[in-house]
């Protein structure tokens, strides 16, 4: 925890992983777990886990460990999964369609409400139960439904322009998959740039540094 009482970015980055592991434990009907057991499962040190979870008032009890579903619920609240942020997706190509159909938005606090694409040939096609809409409907949709999250699966060159327009239309959070590190010159806007290629490069580094 930092001096002003806010949770450090590195702890926040680990929360989704805690949330996922605790969800798996919950599915297996595990009621409680010690920091040592959780550390073995998550390949973190027990003291790291205690430190992380202490940031939120320490859910563990001496000699009892952590109550799995309560801890998961609390972490979920911190993450905001109990919210229902209206979400739109721009770019219904290979990636956009895969994300729209395979990501469970609702379990992560977002509700995917509309998909847009600039290619008129895609208009009317559906992904799951959502029709692909033409991009000239974005403005009206945003004014009416007031989405706050946008998933960008469009080519690099189109990204900044679309993002600026979406900010004007009230979008506050971008899950950006285009190969462009989006930066927005506005306060109170969050951007999560995702590069699967960077993750692969981290793996390449690991492979490149394996001992013979
Ligand atoms: P794709 O070509 O299949 O789909 C792109 C879609 O965006 C097309 O349907 C196109 O009509 C639409 N589009 C283009 N400009 C638009 C605009 N201004 N407004 C609305 N729609 C627009 O490409 P794919 O494979 O789906 O990839 C999409 C983007 O994501 C590419 O830039 C690709 O490089 C990137 N990508 C990023 C990854 C990552 O890890 N961040 C992984 C894979 C792809």
How would you characterize this protein structure?
The chain has helices at 9-27, 35-42, 46-54, 68-79, 94-102, 138-145, 156-168, 196-208; strands at 32-33, 66-67, 85-90, 110-117, 126-127, 130-134, 149-152, 173-176, 190-193. It is built from 8 helices and 9 strands. The chain is of the alpha/beta class. The longest helix has 19 residues, at 9-27. The strands form 2 sheets. Strands 5-6-4-3-7-8-9 form a 7-stranded mixed beta sheet. The chain has a two-stranded antiparallel sheet with strand order 1-2. It is globular, with a radius of gyration of 20 Å. It folds into 2 domains: 9-78, Winged helix-like DNA-binding domain superfamily/Winged helix DNA-binding domain (Arc Repressor Mutant, subunit A), CATH 1.10.10; 85-198, 3-Layer(aba) Sandwich (Rossmann fold). 1,4-dihydronicotinamide adenine dinucleotide binds next to α5, β4, α7 and α8. Residues 90-96, 116-119, 135, 153-156, 158, 162, 177-179, 194-197 line the site of 1,4-dihydronicotinamide adenine dinucleotide.
Blueprint (SSEs and pairs):
Layout: H1 9-27, E1 32-33, H2 35-42, H3 46-54, E2 66-67, H4 68-79, E3 85-90, H5 94-102, E4 110-117, E5 126-127, E6 130-134, H6 138-145, E7 149-152, H7 156-168, E8 173-176, E9 190-193, H8 196-208
Parallel strand pairs: 3-4, 3-7, 4-6, 7-8, 8-9
Antiparallel strand pairs: 1-2, 5-6
Helix pairs in contact: 1-4, 2-3
Bound molecules: 1,4-dihydronicotinamide adenine dinucleotide.
* Major sheet characteristics: 7 strands, mixed
Structural class: alpha/beta
Order of helical and strand elements: HEHHEHEHEEEHEHEEH
Strand percentage lies at 15-25%
Mean pLDDT: 91
Helix content: 40-55%
CATH topology of the largest domain: Rossmann fold
In CATH, what is the class of the largest domain?
A: Alpha Beta
* The CATH homologous superfamily of the largest domain: NAD(P)-binding Rossmann-like Domain
The CATH architecture of the largest domain would be 3-Layer(aba) Sandwich
Write down the domain tally: 2
Catalogue the ligands: 1,4-dihydronicotinamide adenine dinucleotide
